[in-house]
Amino acid sequence: MIQPDRPLSELFSHRRPLRSIEFFPPKDDAGVEALRQTASALKNVSPDFVSVTYGAGGSTRQRTAQVSGLLKADFGYTVMPHLTCVGHTRAELSEIADRIHGDGFRNVMTLRGDPPKGSAEFTATADGLRHANELVSLLKGRYPDLCLGVAGYPEKHPEALSAEADLENLVRKVGAGADFVTTQLFFDNQVYYRFVDRCRKAGITVPVIPGIMPVLSLKQVTRFTSMCGTLLPQVLIRRLEAAGEAPEIVEAVGIDWALGQIRGLLERGAPGYHLYILNRAKSALALAAGLAA
Ligand SMILES: Cc1cc2nc3c(=O)[nH]c(=O)nc-3n(C[C@H](O)[C@H](O)[C@H](O)COP(=O)(O)OP(=O)(O)OC[C@H]3O[C@@H](n4cnc5c(N)ncnc54)[C@H](O)[C@@H]3O)c2cc1C
Question: Does the Cβ of 138 fall within 6 Å of ligand 1?
């Protein structure tokens, strides 16, 4: 008998900061084994929940289900699988929802999704969905007991015509039934505080969880931030440049910056923080150690 997860909305109502960690599905069995080791090491961090991203297409999509299942069954984590509209018809999305719910998951990160590799633009599948708010409606309509997260963009989604239009979209997603928002990564807390203010003024009352990525390399973070339109503060760039080619110093700079961000966010009452750790345990362990009281 499958024990259903607790919906995260219940955890949020305890009003304590929630710690969560994001995994991505590995490409092969060796990657799954490495992820197992990361998941085992992270037991020390005791995340309140972990999430597993959904690939833009191909076999990693089955791996999302596989990895979500093993994180739940073998490690006892509360797992939030991600789901996107990319390449799926409504009927397929409904079937996936049935599987997710049947497997005991009660939390889903609900997204439109990035276009598959090689496509510059998102194109809806015939009889598929165009925007994340439509997937929120589909999932909530089918399973009202699912707790749904949606993506928020403190520095605007790259495709949005304006920050206002993007915020209107977030209002639509929450209006459709989203229970909380997780933000795109950011490196300047002021950006998050301004975003939350704008959300509240627009009538969004659900928790907005800040997404934090400890930097592992200047090259990699420059690529990520240019793809998602996130500002890299000059002082962080200078510190990473000063660390030069020494990976352990670069990681130490990244952890120190993320620690400063998280401390500041929790002092200002953020509902928790979501870590983008790229399947590496080290930075999450270092952050947990740095934050231990
Ligand atoms: C926390 C988090 C987790 C993520 N996980 C994944 C993942 O697992 N897999 C993956 O592929 N990607 C993931 N992404 C990336 C995400 O899929 C992309 O950013 C994608 O381009 C947009 O998805 P969305 O759900 O925000 O889309 P939407 O909310 O649909 O928005 C997409 C764009 O369309 C605009 N828009 C929305 N509705 C309308 C409308 N009615 N009219 C006009 N414009 C509209 C929005 O302003 C925005 O510019 C994640 C992002 C975040 C922040």
Answer: no
Based on the residue annotation, tell me whether 251 is a catalytic residue of this protein.
no
Amino acid at residue number 93: L
Report how far ligand 1's centroid is from the alpha carbon of 16 (Å). Answer: 27
Whether the CB of 283 sits within 6 Å of ligand 1? no
pLDDT in tens, 82-138: 999 999 999 999 999 999 999 999 999 999 999 877 888 899 999 999 999 999 999
Nearest to 15 by CA among 210, 268, 269, 208: 269
**Contact 131 CB / ligand 1 (< 6 Å):** yes
Let me know if 33 is exposed, middle or buried by CB neighbors in 10 A (0-12, 13-18, 19+).
exposed
Cβ-contact 278, 217 below 8 angstroms: no
In the chain, where are the structural domains located? 17-291
Say which CATH topology domain 17-291 has: TIM Barrel (3.20.20)
Q: How far apart are the first and last CA of the chain?
A: 38
For residue 231 the two structure tokens come to 């500002």
Kindly name the residue from 10, 22, 33, 168 that is annotated as catalytic. Answer: 22
Give residue-wise pLDDT tens across range 33-44: 999 999 999 998
pLDDT of residue 74: 96
State which of 54, 112, 274 you would mutate to test the pocket of ligand 1, scoring each by most atoms of that ligand within 8 A of its C-beta. Answer: 112
The closest-lying atom of ligand 1 relative to the alpha carbon of residue 24 is: 8
